[in-house]
Design brief:
Length: 283
């Protein structure tokens, strides 16, 4: 499919993967052999911490670990991936735009999704410097077309959250440092985030993502694709691809992992696009 630039002001920000304590301390060789991993720091409140894989296009992967897991952690489950807006777009403006879009036609497709007002977050990096942002999270309700509970074995993460910087973006995402963005695999950024949904709800989820992104997708047989610019390389479009389950493997994935992230494709300047085995790290 031919790629073309869009006029939207929504960007791919990062993708989040949860690790238990042991795997966080000693990362799987597939990660350590292919990527430069840096310490991110401890989040405000001291309950969680992260490590980062930063790409030169301004996107990144966040390796996330609970230091002390809250009792209600499933209700506080971090979203699987984040989008963002750059200055002068604020978190408040993003939230209001999305809420208005989800309340209008085509809206949320009857799935039951809206977005909460922004909440502030932050962490200290290893040098002790404060990094601050505002998060806009999706909220979920039971609605006429909400899929059955069996499609949410990990809780609902079928829509992205938004992360808007309050401190300079390159303080949170150090994509301007070659020592950080140079990876053994040659990875330079996120090429495609694939979202898997039940076939019967494909139209509803297409409507949801159209409302969230703010522009129509390119349509193909069995999937739609929303092209999004990366924050650090505005001349290139990555994409969100919404696809419905077609195979028994897809159906098994929905039963075990639920609606949401199915695969991640990274770009590389040495080996071409390659898939990250994301299912292994979705908890």
């Amino acid at each position: 499919m031919e790629r073309r630039m869009s006029s939207q002001q929504v960007y791919i920000d990062h993708l989040l993967l949860q690790f238990n304590h042991e795997r966080f301390e000693t990362l799987p060789s597939w990660i350590s052999n292919n990527f430069t991993v840096i310490e991110g720091g401890v989040h405000t409140g001291g309950l969680s911490r992260n490590k980062l894989i930063v790409f030169s296009d301004g996107t990144y992967l966040e390796l996330y670990n609970w230091i002390t897991k809250p009792d209600d952690w499933r209700n506080r489950l971090p979203g699987d991936f984040a989008l963002t807006g750059l200055e002068p777009i604020s978190a408040e403006a993003s939230q209001q735009r999305i809420v208005n879009a989800l309340a209008s036609s085509p809206g949320d497709g009857g799935i039951g999704i809206t977005y909460s007002p922004p909440s502030e977050g932050g962490r200290k990096n290893p040098e002790g410097v404060d990094v601050r942002w505002k998060i806009v999270k999706p909220g979920y309700t039971e609605a006429d077309s909400t899929p059955a509970d069996e499609f949410y074995p990990r809780g609902r993460t079928d829509a992205p959250f938004f992360c808007h910087d309050l401190t300079p973006r390159n303080r949170r995402v150090t994509f301007d440092l070659p020592s950080v963005t140079r990876h053994p695999s040659g990875a330079t950024g996120i090429d495609c985030i694939e979202i898997l949904v039940p076939k019967g709800e494909f139209g509803s989820y297409t409507d949801i993502y159209r409302s969230i992104v703010g522009t129509p997708p390119q349509e193909s047989e069995g999937f739609v694709e929303f092209q999004l610019r990366a924050p650090g390389v505005q001349s290139y479009s990555g994409s969100l691809l919404i696809r419905f389950a077609e195979t028994e493997e897809d159906e098994q994935f929905l039963r075990e992992k639920g609606i949401g992230l199915r695969s991640l494709v990274l770009r590389s300047d040495t080996r071409g696009p390659f898939s990250f085995p994301i299912a292994d790290y979705l908890q």
